[in-house]
């Protein structure tokens, strides 16, 4: 079974696996409360999958600390 989007593509957007997982989980929790997505017509039916699609689409990013 192939997961979409792939971890390799996701890590091109967000370097740290820990940050990636944390961001996706927080965004999934937020979507479960609001039901709103940042992208139109997501492929996934799961909130975490939609969050990962948002990362690939660069709608969801991490602010770098200075």
Overview of this structure, please?
It is a single chain. The protein has 66 residues and is mainly α. Helices cover 53% and strands 0% of the residues. The longest helix is centred in the middle third of the chain and has 18 residues. It starts with 6 loop residues before the first helix and ends in a 10-residue tail after the last helix. It catalyses: RNA(n) + a ribonucleoside 5'-triphosphate = RNA(n+1) + diphosphate. This is DNA-directed RNA polymerase subunit omega.
Question: What is the average of the pLDDT values?
Answer: 90
* Sheet with the most strands, sense and barrel status: none
* Individual helix count: 3
Number of strands: 0
The percentage helix is: 40-55%
- How many structural domains? 1
Low-confidence stretches: none
Distance between the termini: 39 Å
- Report the sheet-strand fraction: under 5%
The shape, in one word, is globular
Helix-strand sequence: HHH
Give me the secondary-structure category.
mainly alpha
What does the radius of gyration come to? Answer: 11 Å
